[in-house]
Amino acid sequence: MASKSALFIINKFAGGGFQPKVEGKILDICAKHNIECSIEFTRDRGHATVLAQEGINKNFNSIIAVGGDGTVNEVARALVNTEQIMAIVPKGSGNGLSRHLGIPLAFEKAVENIFTGKVLRMDTFTINDRLSLNVSGIGFDGHVANLFGKDGKRGLIGYAKLTLKEFLRFKNFPMTINIDGKEQNSNSFIVAIANSSQYGNNARIAPLASVTDELLHLSILKKVPSQMSIPFMIKMFAGQVHRSAYCETLSGKNIIINTEQQQPFHVDGEPTGYDNQFNIKLQPHSLSITVPQQTSKY
Ligand SMILES: Nc1ncnc2c1ncn2[C@@H]1O[C@H](COP(=O)(O)OP(=O)(O)OP(=O)(O)O)[C@@H](O)[C@H]1O
Fold first, then answer.
1. ipTM of this predicted complex?
2. Is the minimum distance from the CB of 200 to ligand 1 under 6 angstroms?
């Protein structure tokens, strides 16, 4: 059994919102497994990190992020580089890391997984000293994340609408990439830095990525001509983006990206502003995470 006592950190505002019956379901499943449990709700951005730190101090066996990739990221900030076990109950709009790890999206099954799953040490990375677990990006995806964050309307449809509107405006930008000492110039639309394979909703930007391979996977995308954008999206959702003529892939551990002008970026889908130098560092096997027993590829 992966857990004897569990702290659930719930972001009521993630994904489609919160249903009060969730609390009762958590208590029932914990009682069934004879687990002592506590439930806390986040009050604001960043609060999940504070709650997770308190959970470590109180010696909970498992600390569980109930939310999307943003909540998972905040909880992990307190847990990274410790032995503390984390689990996820996916409740976000994208749930990229959960999908990559094969964590069930159905609420009860995800809670069961905390007590029946296995624990693995996954890689994480930092981008300009900010922790990232899943996929971070510079360029167009950062631009969309920055706007989407302000917009307030979450969800796949809202995201798709905003992406289409902004796509025509945003242009390729020049940059230099130094990856483990090797330097190259590029003119790119998006640089996705991937630990897991997907942004969320099965949009697989780095199909070959693994969270245990001690590598970061870069997908460097050129702007796709409008008439090719639908076939390109189909390739991405089919897990074939790395075979596209518009995608170059690189992998490594330590990456420095310099851009001529300030570029928007995001960390695990959360808007993070603008910069023109990005220092990216892999942290191998730095976080303990509970995954289903049957997951064989991560
Ligand atoms: N009480 C709160 N009020 C407002 N925002 C909050 C609160 N608690 C957490 N947040 C913020 O909500 C944001 C979104 O959360 P999260 O990423 O978990 O959900 P999501 O965006 O729906 O899912 P995904 O990232 O998987 O698409 C996070 O940046 C988090 O800091």
1. 0.96
2. yes
